[in-house]
Write a structure and sequence with these properties.
CATH class: Alpha Beta
Number of domains: 1
Number of strands: 12
Largest sheet: 10 strands, mixed
Order of helices and strands: HEEEHEHEEEHEHEHHEHEHHEH
Bound molecules: ligand PBG
Structural class: alpha/beta
Shape: globular
CATH superfamily: Aldolase class I
Length: 332
């Protein structure tokens, strides 16, 4: 940056801040409804809108209610929703075959939403944790999360989601080699236009706690995910993961969690210039909601400020549970 500032009083930074009109003129970044992806939870049943206790204002929808929510999202101008299944604990196994069942709850939900609102992009989650008896994203053998066998399972899962009509596949599992394997399978099965948003810089974070409640994985999870998710201390490793996933055929990349990892958002955008997204995860949402409920912060203002931070940090968009609320505000 050139140092072109004349000394005080010729330069007064407060001049262009002095009215709303001037502030609007000099504003560097904008938050728009186009930037939002809304993560939603789906479960069995009809007419079900089940509140998630650790995420006030967030629900698990049965497919019919999900379709209604999808219509509302589309009417608000939100370009995409991202589906996460809640699986009945009795259906979870060590081998996770429900994950690639064409009629599992996630695949039925994709079909229903694409039938009802074809213009709304549907993003999916690819990982075994909602279906896994031990709560891990991969297949566990003798206490080890096995990489290559998991990748084979994830590829089957990806193809079924593509067949169901998904627009964006979201591998969130952090196995090595999964993007390349999925891309090759998609190409050879004719799904040349199905995009992949890789959870490329996904950290082993405690901010995912409320999400694991929402998908029913908390009680199942044995141990932690540190052997596959990135150490929160590591920046260069995260950048190498992003580079790797782009080289294997990811169309878009994600940094997750969001706010505590804004440095990575900026790094990723500057280094690769690829479409870059942040996931403002469940724990970030829960913290804002909890403080707001206590009257400690203005929830709506903090919500908007947090989302603008992602734009300032170089993100093209954000996955956020606030999406419909923000959209309503931005639409006036
Ligand atoms: C699991 C997955 C997680 C999230 C999205 N996909 C949790 C985890 O890795 O344990 C977290 C999302 C959130 O916290 O909002 N594959």
């Amino acid at each position: 940056m050139r140092n072109s500032q004349a000394p005080f009083p010729r330069t007064r930074f407060r001049r262009p801040r002095s009215s709303a009109a001037l502030r609007a003129l000099v504003r560097e970044n904008r938050l728009s409804v186009d930037d939002l992806i809304w993560p939603v939870f789906v479960r069995e049943g009809t007419g079900v809108e089940e509140p998630v206790a650790s995420m006030p204002g967030v629900f698990r929808f049965s497919v019919d209610c999900l379709v209604k929510a999808a219509r509302e999202a589309h009417a608000l101008g939100i370009p995409a929703i991202c589906l996460f299944p809640y699986t009945d604990p009795s259906l979870k196994t060590e081998t996770c075959e429900i994950a690639w069942d064409p009629d599992n709850i996630a695949n039925r939900a994709i079909r229903a939403v694409k039938d009802a609102v074809p213009e709304l992009a549907v993003m999916t989650d690819i990982a075994l944790d909602p279906y896994n008896a031990n709560g891990h994203d991969g297949i566990v053998r003798d206490g080890i999360i096995v990489n290559d066998e998991t990748v084979e399972a994830l590829v089957k899962m990806a193809l079924e989601q593509a067949r169901a009509g998904a627009d964006i596949l979201g591998p969130s599992d952090m196995m090595d080699g999964r993007i390349g394997a999925m891309r090759a399978a998609l190409e050879s099965d004719g799904f040349t236009d199905v995009t992949i948003m890789s959870y490329a810089a996904k950290f082993a974070s405690a901010y995912y706690g409320p999400f694991r409640d929402a998908v029913g994985a908390s009680s199942a999870l044995k141990g932690d995910k540190k052997t596959y998710q990135i150490d929160p201390a590591n920046r260069l490793e995260a950048l190498r993961c992003v580079e790797r996933d782009l080289s294997e055929g990811a169309d878009m990349v994600m940094v997750k969690p969001g706010l505590p990892y804004l440095d990575l958002c900026r790094d990723v955008k500057d280094a690769f210039g690829a479409p870059t997204f942040a996931y403002q995860v469940s724990g970030e949402y829960a913290m804002i909601e909890a403080a707001a409920a206590n009257g400690w912060i203005d929830g709506e203002k903090v919500m908007l400020e947090s989302l603008m931070s992602f734009r300032r940090a170089g993100c093209d968009g954000v996955l956020t549970y606030f999406a419909p609320r923000v959209a309503r505000i931005l639409n006036g």
